[in-house]
Design goal:
five-stranded mixed β-sheet; single chain; 351 residues; 11 helices; 39% helix; alpha+beta; 16% strand; three-stranded antiparallel β-sheet
Length: 351
């Protein structure tokens, strides 16, 4: 997964030192919250919904119909199906979607996530480095900052988009030859502790005025990294004047909650579905620019769709990540605009 090029990833194991008083007290705190029933799936959904909807005024419950251009009917149909899959998946986030995911609160969470309301931790743009929530603390003999919440990057957005469009390729379709589908787990390097150290010069001396950021990381299972994010960002007892539990201290909760059932490497997106989705995004961007009186939309996404063609019939996670990476911010912005259709400010007549 992506790492910040300006940060040195330490080769040291985070568990080499004793957990320390702060981490020990935070683990005990989370265990107490578990005993109180505040770490269940329903309790987490309730906090997550409340957190996301703080700045949201009102939703429109009508889907505005749009007439496709001649020759776009089939592509639009498949593309709209992909849009619904994205909406359904985000309604269940950070868990896997079920038949009951799309309730009123699930719909609210999905729209908030997809329209960046409140803004996600990509600020100000996808090109910015992730911004972690930090607490002053120690790691063994080292002074620095313990990571309370994980900052997000553009690959986090692509992971969510891929999961929302994908299906278990090998198990469901049997299209790939035997032995070609990898089920190797994918891990994400998550900073646990950050400190600064002087740059070492070629002479062997150090420059105290040139400090390098060093991160000690833990490699977390991709299937549960988003769940830990939501747990740490939506604490059961939010106490403004003190520290909420460190992100790592929620790990005992994972054993009691469902995680994503499939590795990214077990999933595939039908190429035709991805192509139709990209064409629909291109049409939406063009329509928005025409509505705003701007120039016609560029052909970036259309060129990408045409380049994908229909072979191979399925797109793996690694290929999806590679081809979508240059277009991440554009896709995110268009999706936000599309799903803003479901959102409207409160009118005086509604008060």
């Amino acid at each position: 997964m992506e790492t910040d090029p300006d940060v040195i990833i330490s080769s040291e194991n985070y568990d080499k030192f004793d957990i320390g008083d702060i981490r020990r007290s935070h683990i005990e705190w989370v265990q107490d919250l578990m005993r109180q029933g505040l770490m269940t799936q329903s309790a987490l959904y309730e906090r997550f919904t409340a957190s996301l909807s703080k700045t949201l005024v009102r939703f429109v419950s009508i889907i505005q119909s749009k007439t496709p251009q001649p020759g776009q009917e089939i592509a639009a149909s498949v593309g709209l199906s992909a849009m619904f899959d994205i909406l359904t998946w985000h309604a269940a986030f950070p868990f896997a979607p079920t038949r009951n995911s799309m309730d009123e609160n699930g719909f609210l969470r999905a729209i908030c996530l997809l329209t960046w309301n409140p803004p996600p931790h990509y600020a100000p743009t996808f090109s910015s480095r992730p911004v972690h929530g930090l607490y002053t603390g120690n790691w063994g003999p080292h002074s620095g900052w313990l990571v309370a919440t994980r900052g997000k990057g553009p690959q986090d957005f692509r992971r969510r988009l891929f999961r929302s469009l994908a299906e278990p390729g090998a198990e469901r379709h049997g299209q790939e030859p035997a032995g070609t589908v990898s089920t190797a787990p994918i891990t994400i390097p998550v900073p646990r502790f950050v400190r600064y150290q002087p740059r070492e010069l070629d002479s062997g001396e150090t420059d105290e005025n040139d400090l390098l950021e060093v991160a000690v990381v833990a490699h977390e299972d991709e299937r549960s990294v988003d769940l830990l994010d939501v747990l740490s960002e939506n604490p059961a007892e939010d106490i403004p004047m003190t520290c909420n539990p460190l992100r790592e201290c929620y790990e005992p909760v994972l054993a009691t909650l469902p995680r994503q059932p499939h590795q990214l490497t077990e999933l595939r997106i039908p190429t035709a579905k991805l192509v139709s989705f990209l064409r629909l995004l291109h049409a939406s961007e063009r329509q928005r620019r025409q509505r705003d009186g701007g120039d016609a939309a560029g052909s970036h996404l259309m060129a990408l769709a045409q380049g994908l063609g229909d072979r191979p019939p399925y797109i793996s996670w690694h290929r999806f990540d590679a081809v979508i990476a240059p277009h991440t911010e554009r896709i995110g912005r268009i999706l936000s605009d599309v799903f803003s259709t479901f959102k409207a400010p409160l009118r005086p007549s509604d008060e």
